[in-house]
Known about the structure:
This protein has about 525 residues and is of the alpha/beta class. The chain has three domains: about 25-270, TIM Barrel (Alpha-Beta Barrel); about 335-395; about 400-515, Double Stranded RNA Binding Domain. Helices cover about 40% and strands about 20% of the residues.
Amino acid sequence: MPIQHPSFGALPEDRIIIFDTTLRDGEQSPGFSMNLQEKLRMAEALAELGVDVIEAGFPIASPGDFESVRLIAENIRGPVIAGLARAARADILRAAEAVAPAERRRIHTFISTSALHMKHKLRMEPDEVLAAVTDSVSLARQHTDDVEWSAEDGSRTDRDFLCRCVEAAIKAGATTINIPDTVGYAVPADMHAIFAMLRERVPGADGVIFSTHNHNDLGLAVANTLAAVAAGVRQIECTINGIGERAGNASLEEVVMAIRTRHDAIGCTTGVVTPNILKTSKLLAAITGFDVQPNKAIVGRNAFAHESGIHQDGVLKNAATYEIMTPESVGWSRSSLVMGKHSGRAAFRDKLRALGYGEVGDNQLNDAFRRFKDLADRKKVVYDEDIAALVDDEVLRGHNRIRFVALDVHAGSRGPARAELELEIDGTAKQASATGDGPVDATFNALRKIFPHEAVLRLFSVGAVTEGTDAQARVTVRLEEDGKMVDGQGADTDTIVASARAYVHALNKLLVKRARTAPEDIATAMRA
Length: 528
C-alpha cells in the first residue's frame, strides 16, 4: 500500500526519495565550506537535478548558516527544503524560522541513542532521551507537518531501545524516521536487519517513511544504503561526490545509477534527472576546489575511459561489452575537440550552457571568453574540461573582493625568483613585486605585500586538467587562519598564474569566513 506523506502525497511503493545533504553534512567537511551565493547556486543545481529534499543547513550553527537556509527556502522551488535541529527548543525554533518561506518545508531533528553517546556525549539517561524525542518532535510538528527524526549513532544502538525511540517519534508525529550509520561502522547485513526489525516490531511503522544515512569510513556507504533499500527503506540520504564528515557519505551519483542500472535487482526508481549528474558534480568540485579522483564511479574522468587494447576493441564493436551504462546517461559527452580559436561568442555561450553553466552574465561571459581565446591561441586542442576549468575562475568568483589581473615572473637557477603581481582590491588596482625561493614563493610573497594577512599555507597541490605539455594546470591552495580552513582553486596553462589564481580564490573565501560570527559549538549536550 502507498504511504501517505504530507510533502509527497501517496508515494508509490517503488519510489525512492532522494534526500541530498551536500549543503549540510557535505559542507561540514574540512575545507568544503561555501559562501552564501555558492550555496544558492548549488541548491539551484540540486533542484535541476531533481532531488526530492535539500537539507540546506544547520540554522542555529551560525548566522551565516541561518541566512543560507533562509535564502534557499525563499528562492528554490520544487524540492522540500529541510533545516537540521538538535533536540533542543532553540534549535527547532531557529530551524522553523529558517525554512518558513519554503514552498514545502521540513524540520529534521536528531538526538543520539547509542549507550556510548548517551553516556559520554549527552550525559543523559535513556528515559531522558526518550522524553527529548517526544518533546522535540512534538514541537517541530507545531511548525510543519513534515518532520524527520534521526537516531544519531543508530547502527550502534541497543535494538530494544531503538524500537522504543522510533515508537516515541512516530507517536509524537514524525513522518520520516532516519537510522544513520553515523560512524560508518555497519556492514550491509546490519543495516538490512535493523530496518527489517523496526518495520516488523514498531507500532505505526507502516505509516512512515524510513530513511538511511550512511557514512563511508569502511567504504561501505553505498552498499549499506542499497541493503537498507532492500529492507524497505524509501528515503536515501546522500551527497554529491560523496562528500561529508571524515570519509564522506553515500554518493548520490552512485546510489542513483545503481538503482537505475540494476532495476532488475533493486526494483525501485528515483526522480533524479541523471544527465545532469556530471555537471552538478563538476559545479561542486569547482566551488569547493576539490576534484573527484580519476577512478571515481560515474563522475571520475576515467569512468568511461578505456586504455586496454582488448577493452578498446570491445567498445568499438559494441559499447555494452565494457560499459554498463551510457556516458550520455549521466552527462558525459563522447566529443573531445569542440571549440577552437575560430569559435565565436555565440558558440562559446552555447557551449557554456551545454556544460551546465546556464545563463552567464555579460561581464563574466566577456572575461571568460577573453580567457578562452587566449587559451585557444596557446593550446593545440581545447577540451570541455579546459573550458570548464577556466570558466570556473570567472563564473564562480564574480562577487569576490580580490581579483587577479596580471603576473610577470622571472626565475631560473642563477638567483632568487622575482614576481611582479597586479591585483584588483575592491575595484582598485594595486601592484607589488617580491622575491622568493622559486616563482611560486615569490608570487605568494607579492600577494602578501598587496593584501597583508596572517593566514598560513597548509596545502599546495598541482594537477593537470587534460593531457599534454600544453595542458592547463589546476592548482589547489589551502589556507588556515585562527582555526578557519579554506581551499581555493585556479587553472591556467601557466602553473604560476594558476597558483596565483588559487591563492586569490582562497583569500576571498577567507574574507567571507572572517565576516561570519563563530558558530555555536554543535557538539554540546542537547539539553533544552
